[in-house]
Amino acid sequence: MSLTIPTDLLPVDGRFGCGPSKVRPAALTALATRGATWMGTSHRQAPVREVVRRIRTGLASLYDAPEGYEVVLGNGGSTQFWDVASFCLIQQRASVSVFGEFTSKFASAIARTPWLDEPTVAEVAPGSVILPRVADADVYAWAHNETATGAAAPIHRIPGSDPQALTLIDATSSAGAMPVDLADVDAYYFAPQKGFSSDGGLWCALLSPAAIERSARLTQERWIPDSLNLQLAVTNSRADQTLNTPALATLFLMAEQLDWLLASGGLAYAERRTHASASHLYAWADAHPLASPFVSEPYRSPVVGTIDFDASVDAAALAATLRANNIVDVEPYRKLGRNQLRIGMFPAVEPSDVEALTACIDWVLERTVA
């Protein structure tokens, strides 16, 4: 049955994806105007290097980076940074936590690295959160926010761990939206296609002096491909460049999002927006007879909301109906296999559009569930 949702119920912008996520129209306009003569120019020259500088200084300001921390950029995405970490930051053994698909992938990448010991793995079923166990480890690693499940983890040094151990945090779906004290982290790394309302093809990391020192030492001890060499990325970033040609549109859009966040109030502003969206979504689901949040408190993500539905609801058909009405990318993460929707609530998403989304879901359910 084809359903047409009344236009007065529809969100102004129907993009709720979890990556790539919504890009603000103002940033796209800037790319099409100010970026028109900038795209297709050399990344070694001043105009592009100035945008890289905007990103590096903007990130340091947004996160109030402690003395000695550096913002480093590299080609690729968070998946690439897992390999960078395996080469350049893990000395012998990592202790990692697994509570979803993306944390699992990093643990797997470490386990496949032949010169490293088998990682110590603390694992819990998707939808909950677990932190790494204290072990004979020189790295502790987990995700700030599990993009697959919508579970958010606390960030702090693992009590009882070696003071020389590094803490690595995958921030791909938390960066630009969720607070963190960088003093508790040695590498806070991410790609910009979620909270930073940009596109893929880049990784960014806020690195502590200890992480940079570890990288410099391991680079001298191991053969490391240039594309995975963190010290080369550090050297190029200090010159406001990347090792290889970057995706210029990704840089431009990320710089625009950073400027918007900083001008609006920084991470506090981003938090208010995501909190407003998430509070509405979870309150709606908690009160709904056919829906419930997948993740329990206190681990519900403010940026990725996963909502389970009663067996009487065909969530796949619901997502298809929404997509036919230009409300897109609310399908669940494919490998979870749950009867649910996954809703991106990054800072670029208007909280009023999340309210409109739930009204549209109500409208569809009233007409499709007996």
UniProtKB/TrEMBL annotation:
Q: Which cofactor does it need?
A: pyridoxal 5'-phosphate
Q: Does the keyword Amino-acid biosynthesis apply?
A: yes
> What protein family does this chain belong to?
Belongs to the class-V pyridoxal-phosphate-dependent aminotransferase family. SerC subfamily.
Q: Which reactions are catalysed by this chain?
A: 4-(phosphooxy)-L-threonine + 2-oxoglutarate = (R)-3-hydroxy-2-oxo-4-phosphooxybutanoate + L-glutamate; O-phospho-L-serine + 2-oxoglutarate = 3-phosphooxypyruvate + L-glutamate
Q: One biological-process term from Gene Ontology?
A: glycine biosynthetic process, by transamination of glyoxylate
Protein name (record): phosphoserine transaminase
Coiled-coil positions are: none
Organism the protein comes from? Propioniciclava flava
Note the PANTHER family from the entry.
ALANINE--GLYOXYLATE AMINOTRANSFERASE (PTHR21152:SF40), AMINOTRANSFERASE CLASS V (PTHR21152)
InterPro entries assigned to the protein according to its UniProt record, in alphabetical order? Aminotrans_V_dom, Pser_aminoTfrase, Pser_aminoTfrase_mycobac, PyrdxlP-dep_Trfase, PyrdxlP-dep_Trfase_major, PyrdxlP-dep_Trfase_small
